[in-house]
Amino acid sequence: MRLRDIALVGLFSAGLVGCTDSGGPDDPPDPATGLRLEDVGNFSFPILLTAPPGDPRLFVVQKGGAIRIIKNGATLATPFLNLAGRISTGGEQGLLGMAFHPNYATNGLFVVNYTDTGGNTKISLFRVGANPDIADPNSEGVILEVPQPFTNHNGGMLAFGPQDGRLYIGMGDGGSAGDPQNHAQRRNSLLGKMLRLSVSASGQVSIPTDNPFVSEAGTRPEIWSLGLRNPWRFSFDRQTGDLYIADVGQDAREEINVTSGAGSRGANYGWKTMEGTICYQASSCNQTGLTLPVLDYPRGDGCSVTGGFVYRGSQIPGLAGTLFFRDYFPGWVRSL
Q1: Ranges of residues in the chain whose predicted pLDDT is under 50
Q2: Is residue 10 helix, strand or coil?
Q3: How far apart are CA 154 and CA 313, in angstroms?
Q4: Which one of 58, 298, 306, 326 is separated from 256 by 20 to 30 angstroms, measured CA to CA?
Q5: What is the CA radius of gyration of the chain?
Q6: Which of 125, 194, 110, 117 has the alpha carbon at shortest distance from 148?
Q7: What is the DSSP letter of 133?
Q8: Are 258 and 199 in contact (CB under 8 A)?
């Protein structure tokens, strides 16, 4: 696979909603692509840009707890939802993810991922109110609670699979450094895992019967795959269903894992036996049964990979099938 730098940061939406560009809508187009950056408003620590299926509105998720709507090019004054009083926001904590139910247009259901005032992860189901631009703050139904031993490595991403319609939840290893409690490899822990749940059109939550460990004693049935350190962002290729997971590294490597829809079932991505494609704090290690990343890069290139999205638009056919991703600290955007 070929890695190349992409100069136009505006191609990558998640995490760049705050528009640090000093220009505005009249910025001249980039000569290579014809694209330009467009200022859509000021936000406080935006961490995700998303939208319901088929809906022209854009939803900006802010780490401090508020979800704002960009509608017809303008940011609405009233937040769609504000969870500021229910969350902790220190360090890597806060409102970390949001996903709309595939049937949102008819059922108004969406899921959020946040750390509560005690620092633990809550996955909660909400419903839109009578006004389609404002959610009902009293409709919260907690569907999963995960104790967090430390304040970092909370994961945060949520997404419904484009082919199976299941809810996928990325969980970090619980924090500190080096996964001291070995959560990522322990199957009785939900930390360091990709979890998978079924959320019906009416909001009923269950564990899918085809989850890989659903009948294995001593293993949490919610687990879909394991061996992750901090999958801050992941996404599905909407055409193929392939799963792309950007996993933040420890000391040496940042990594991107890619598995087919079927291939991600029960996959072990290696942490903390491996950090990227190298052994973690060992001269040798057993890699049997591990799914290693398709790309890793050294800390000299970046130190906090942020997962992106596979382009499946029609305006730039040459980019079809290309993943765009970012590293937070250098600020570059690259494609794969």
Answers
A1: 1-25
A2: helix
A3: 31
A4: 58
A5: 19
A6: 117
A7: T
A8: no
